[in-house]
Design goal:
- The protein is an alpha+beta fold and about 375 residues long.
- The protein has 15 helices and 14 strands.
- It folds into two domains: about 90 residues, Outer Surface Protein A, domain 3, CATH 3.90.930; about 240 residues, NADH Oxidase, CATH 3.40.109.10.
- Helix content is about 35%, strand content about 20%.
- The strands form four sheets. It has a seven-stranded antiparallel β-sheet, with helices on both faces.
Amino acid sequence: MPIRRARSIVCYWHDGAFVVENFRTRITVSLDPVAAELLNELGDWTEPEKVAARFPDFDPESVRQSLADLEESGLIVRQGQSAAEHDEVVGTSWPEWNMSARYLHTMTKNAPYTEDTPELREELAAQGGRPALFKSYPEADVVLLPRIPRPIGASFEEVLYRRRTHRAFADEDVPLVDFATLLSSVFGPAQFIDADAYGSLMQRTSASGGARQEIEAYVLVRRVEALAPGIYHYNGLIHGLEFLGDCPPWQDVAQLSVNQRGIEDAAFAIVLTSLVERMRSKYRTARTYRIMLMDAGHLAQTFAMVTTALGLGPFQTAAFADTDVEDLLGIDGVDETALYLLSAGVPADPQQDGTNGLKTPAGLAAFRRSRIAH
């Protein structure tokens, strides 16, 4: 019966060994690199005898045995079997997103959950075992923000249904008290809890996996009352902005997000980054990467809601040049990596902008072009 190489395998070197991993079966094996030559011959369905004939320098029986070993390891599938059908689906799905998306999705599924272990508690108790609750730039100049928040009287229902992604902003400053209220409400500490071996942990107004609070906020200021334009890090411990450097021309900032109008016209932008060690110190599986993305989303939604309640317009995008943004912030993209780009400003006058704040409501013609239900 014909055999072929599994579609759902990746190869790499690790600790001096040639490693082949099937992300469908979760089987990882170390192989002699010559095995890659065998796998290379199995891109399409082929009879084992024909494969053996392509390696005249090896004993045919040894080739057949190697093929059997590779099949047992899940690196080869056999035509007509359910494993081959499943492999075809897993290994070729989402072609536009390529292998990296399939690998990340599959390898972060069904991860074992462990709250903690005695070994982890001991490690955390060791000197330096617990990551700091706050990141700071001790040498940076600091702007301390107003601590009297602007009262937010809007009802939940009003904010929920009034929230829209804005792309057009007025050419005017955001009031400092609104700006300070926004940062403290979204990124500042709401309270601290006793987390046993983990010490005290911060809680914000957004959910965070394990209360790790790994997300940091860097602010690019363009038009905020009383604030010099520049690149800042928001330090929630002191409710202040740490000045990191001058902001490039705003058109260059917009270019980092492929010149989206929601950044181009904004009064300020905020880059959400993740301090990976805060998560890794507790959660040791690759699924943690998913949690970091979720946490960024939680904060972005709170940002949008608070911004709306303050009468400002929120914008958010994942379309940005990661490495260029990280270089601008002076972070390495590994231990700390950019995840999300937010912005806001005073909404443009609907009459001048011509949008009325909303897109055209869907009518009969639009629904005729739609597929409403499966």
